[in-house]
Amino acid sequence: MTTASAPQTSADPTGSVTVIPHIVAGERVSPQGRTGPVFNPASGRQSGEVALASAAFVNEAARRAQAAQRGWRDTGLGKRQQVMFRLREIVASRAEELARIITAEHGKTVDDALGEVARGLENVEFCTSLMHHLKGDYSEQVASGVDVHQVRQPVGVVACITPFNFPAMVPLWMVTTAIAAGNAVILKPSERDPSAAVWLAEAFAEAGLPDGILNVVHGDKEAVDALLDDPIVRAVSFVGSTPIARYIYARAAENGKRVQALGGAKNHMIVMPDADLDAAADAAVSAAYGSAGERCMAVSVVVAVGDVADPLVAKVAERIGGLVVGDGTDPDSDMGPLITRDALERVRGFVAGAADEGARIVVDGRELAVDGDGFFIGPSLVDAVTPGMRVYDEEIFGPVLSVVRVASYDDAVALINDNRYANGTAVFTRDGKTARQFEYDIEVGMVGVNVPIPVPIGAFSFGGWKDSLFGDTHMYGPEAFNFYTRRKVVTTRWPDPSESQISLGFPTH
Ligand code: NAD
User: Fold this and answer.
1) How many structural domains comprise the chain?
2) Which of 164, 218, 248 to mutate to test the pocket of ligand 1 (most atoms within 8 A of CB)?
3) Are residues 142 and 70 in the same domain?
């Protein structure tokens, strides 16, 4: 592992602080009350100041969104599709600009940020076919002279509340489909890296989206609570940590809104005795330490079955030695800093606690030598981890990979199925029967077979089970078109007046 590079960043070379505005009804609105600091994690310096909306500001934004939504609902599907096509071209042609904004506030490498943009774009591409996704159903002659059809109508105003770790991709998961379906959106991005959301709103506007259909309102709990309570908001999409997801789900549902709330994760990767250990070690290192472990689909636990543990741990440790930790704008960096100083201290605490609880620290990321004040920590590898240790039981959300040793496939499956999180998992094996059995047995929402980060492509939908998702609808893809529309079923008869009669019986076929 190399020393973190000196924090030369493109984001705050002058040390100036940028004011990050809301976007409401097409206008940039400067902070009017409370604000919060935004940091460049590579330098540790404040680079921005973001507005934190009051409840009254949120309520006014919701009112403006509602007023705009009526016109958008009336806009022909072909015109809506054209917005999606233009948006696709804008984001694709300026991907690097967006990626650098992400890196400046999140810290991930520019390469990784480009990957985030590409995965977000899949959702735009899926929505270029919105005319197909919004098609209704028709049944002719369900009774004599009676036909039935179903249409999809937008729900109205939708709130999208997003986490810090994918400041462009997760907003694109949500807002793209919500808008394609004819809704107006209030996007409340993470207050820790809010600039990507502003960039996206301006890209939508450039693509021809009318003012007021995508509003960006920054804020913290006060703004979120106002969205959850405002009767204008009819649906809430949330991605973030499990305690907040549970809270969002309960409060929004209490207020009669439809809600999908995706939470945290603890993703296990099983390595079977027949697996190719070099490929498994490559996959574990990539999936554990990419984006400094700040991915909801990061592998945080390797489950080593049988006697693979010793050679596998050695191979992972060897690969960690080759990773370069540094400023995300440096093309040589494999891994950037964590999002905040608090996150850094938290992750350090997990590594320290693991040693105290009897786990074996094979690689200690705290030993990384760092120049400057950036929020850097190196990758850690912790062996002999068992359930009951904090390092196993809690989501760390940092570059710490635990290894749990088990005797058999059955023990591995039982371990995963006992975990309260169930976002993603993977099995590494060369045996098709084992892989098929794993897919069948495992109680997790997204499964990889020799694929460590099985994020579904845009034509499927994304979501975990258990404490990783509250609600029953997954993000993006076909399920999102269900979430963001209300189905209306119309039963039609065109009778001859001469056949009309009174009948108090319940209508049957
Ligand atoms: P977070 O829960 O702290 O914040 C998410 C959003 O909730 C932010 O917009 C934040 O402003 C808001 N929020 C925070 N505290 C709140 C409160 N008390 N009341 C109301 N709103 C509040 O999550 P984060 O730290 O930004 O993101 C990391 C977490 O997100 C991790 O747990 C990660 O696993 C999870 N995540 C999950 C998925 C998934 O698909 N399941 C995807 C990405 C991230």
Assistant:
1) 2
2) 164
3) yes
Tell whether ligand 1 has an atom less than 6 A from the beta carbon of residue 397.
yes
Residue 505 in any domain: the answer is: no
Claim to verify: residue 299 and residue 197 sit in the same structural domain: no
CATH number at residue 67: 3.40.605.10
Q: How many whole angstroms from 193 Cα to the centroid of ligand 1?
A: 12
pLDDT per position as a tens digit, 207-255: 999 999 999 999 999 999 999 999 999 999 999 999 999 999 999 999 9
Q: Is residue 508, in this structure, part of any structural domain at all?
A: no
Tokens of 293: 């472990």
Domain check: are 282 and 259 in the same one?
Answer: no
Is 191's C-beta closer than 6 angstroms to any atom of ligand 1? yes
Q: Please tell me whether residues 107 and 215 are part of one structural domain.
A: yes
Instruction: Please indicate whether residue 237, judged by its CB atom, sits closer than 6 Å to ligand 1.
Output: no
Contact criterion met (CB below 8 Å) for 373 and 367: no
Residues 289 and 384 in one domain: yes
Centroid of ligand 1 to alpha carbon of 74 (angstroms): 34
Say if ligand 1 is within 6 A of residue 25 CB: no
Query: Which position has the token pair 């006014």?
Result: 60
Establish whether residue 300 lines the binding site of ligand 1, counting it when its CB lies within 6 angstroms of any ligand atom.
Answer: no
Which backbone phi and psi does 305 adopt, to 5 degrees? -95, 130
Strand ranges, E, within 240-391 = 258-262, 267-271, 299-305, 360-363, 380-383
494: in domain:
no
Distance of alpha carbon 385 from alpha carbon 88, whole angstroms: 45
Q: Are residues 478 and 436 in the same domain?
A: no
Q: Is 296 considered catalytic here?
A: yes
Question: What pLDDT score does 4 carry?
Answer: 44
Q: Which atom from ligand 1 is nearest to the alpha carbon of 220? A: 11
Catalytic site residue from 20, 296, 427, 453 = 296
Q: Are residues 40 and 162 in the same domain?
A: yes
What pTM was computed for the model? 0.96
Print the domain residue range for 134: 18-263+468-488
Atom 17 of ligand 1, nearest CA residue = 221
**134 and 278 share one domain:** no
Dihedral Cα 111, 117, 118, 120, nearest 10 deg: 150
Write the ipTM.
0.98
From CA 230, how far away is CA 255, in angstroms rounded?
A: 9
